[in-house]
Write a structure and sequence with these properties.
By secondary structure, the chain is an alpha/beta fold. The protein contains 14 helices and 14 strands. Bound molecules: guanosine-5'-triphosphate and magnesium ion.
């Protein structure tokens, strides 16, 4: 991204989001930008090492939490519109980490997604879904927040707390820590692919295509492996990750971003083995791969995969000043720019520019046609 640096902000919202960012930030790569926001000043005090802290909704809760009330959370965010606008200014990609089921995070997330969309920032939400033992009311609040969020967020990755706690004997603190580490791998891995110059860059427009086309929900998996058959072990670990194990999500995904990091000893055959082991075998899957070399990875390999669960229907001009769902030939024409035969294209491959337009970017995105959820 040397030509046009893109600004990526990782924002922690509410208790879970702030805790997770507070755990991720100390070990994060240089240059990664973090911020935290809550209406609960006590939570913000535990994030003293995060410089960019926003106390939201002072006039609404007077520095207290939203007490599990989603509507109070929403009002806090709306009350802090000016602060949020300042926070979002100049941001190209907003990655939000938020636990759903409480008050502030659940209420504020859709407001922030809407404001980010209006400010022209792409949004990717990593949402933590409560444990089932937290009760049906909390679960219900989390799902209602998800529904609202779908309207405005470009993409949402769900991370059920329960999936991160496969061992019933684990202490709560260890489980939460494990959950934070999993999120950190996804968020940092994606950031690394976008921000660091690799052999094959996963460029920002690849991510944007993914965010624009995916029907709101994505899955991610990540893994690292060492040893003789490390590429094979990596593929196995990617499929076995608790966030996707047993779902066939990789086999069915219409769009997949793969970020691979290796050291000086990374082999082309390993890259091939990983891509072939991860990406769906359908002829119409859109695949983008980024490869980054980092000497500290020598002897090992690491990968993150972001997979769209479904591709949404594009819309086309209806010829009367409105829009209609793409169908038949229209649909084929619209999709031509994105659904290519399985090409195994790398992110760094040359783009097709015609009359100043990038034909790798779907027409409805180039023409800024809004798609409904
Ligand atoms: N993984 C993980 N999950 C958490 C953590 N803290 C809370 N959660 C989950 O996130 C959900 C929402 O909780 P919070 O983030 O504390 O809620 P909040 O947004 O601060 O809402 P209020 O406190 O009511 O204003 C909870 O129901 C938990 O399931 C954490 O540190 N790690
Ligand atoms: Mg809270």
């Amino acid at each position: 991204m040397a030509d046009s640096p893109k600004r990526i902000l990782v924002l922690g919202l509410g208790g879970a989001g702030c805790n997770t960012v507070a755990r991720i930030a100390p070990g994060a790569p240089d240059g990664m930008e973090f911020a935290v926001m809550d209406c609960d000043v006590q939570t913000l005090q535990t994030c003293a090492h995060i410089e960019n802290r926003t106390a939201s909704g002072k006039a609404v809760t007077d520095g207290m939490s939203a007490g599990g009330d989603l509507d109070t959370g929403r009002r806090c965010a709306e009350n802090s519109a000016g602060q949020i606008e300042t926070l979002l200014s100049g941001i190209d990609l907003l990655m939000v980490i938020v636990g759903l089921g409480g008050g502030f995070g659940s209420g504020a997330a859709p407001v922030i997604a809407r404001m980010a969309r209006n400010a022209g920032a792409a949004t990717l939400f990593f949402t933590i879904i409560p444990f089932s033992f937290e009760g049906t009311v909390t679960q219900g609040k989390a799902h209602s927040a998800l529904r609202r969020l779908r309207t405005y967020a470009d993409a949402i990755v769900q991370m059920p707390n329960a999936l991160i706690q496969p061992d019933g004997d684990k202490l709560l603190a260890d489980s939460l820590d494990r959950s934070s580490r999993t999120l950190a791998e996804g968020v940092v891995g994606l950031w690394r692919m976008l921000a660091q110059t690799g052999i094959y860059n996963l460029d920002f427009s690849s991510l944007q295509t993914m965010l624009n086309y995916c029907d709101a929900t994505c899955r991610f998996t990540c893994a690292t492996a060492k040893g003789k058959n490390r590429a094979g072990a990596l593929v196995e670990a990617l499929h076995a990750h608790p966030l996707i194990a047993g779902t066939a999500v990789l086999e069915k995904a219409p769009g997949v971003l793969i970020g691979i990091t290796g050291g000086d000893d990374l082999k082309l055959s390993e890259i091939q083995q990983i891509i072939e082991g991860v990406a769906p075998s359908g002829e119409t899957c859109w695949i983008k791969t980024g490869v980054t070399m980092d000497p500290s990875f020598t002897g090992g390999l690491s990968a993150i995969v972001l997979a769209a669960e479904a591709w949404k229907e594009p819309l086309v001009d209806d010829g009367h000043g409105g829009l209609k769902p793409a169908s038949g030939e229209d649909k084929q024409a619209e999709l031509a720019g994105v659904l290519k035969p399985r090409s195994r294209a790398f992110g760094g491959s040359e783009r097709t520019i015609w009359k100043g337009e990038d034909l790798d970017v779907p027409a409805y995105i180039r023409r800024k046609i809004k798609l409904p959820r």
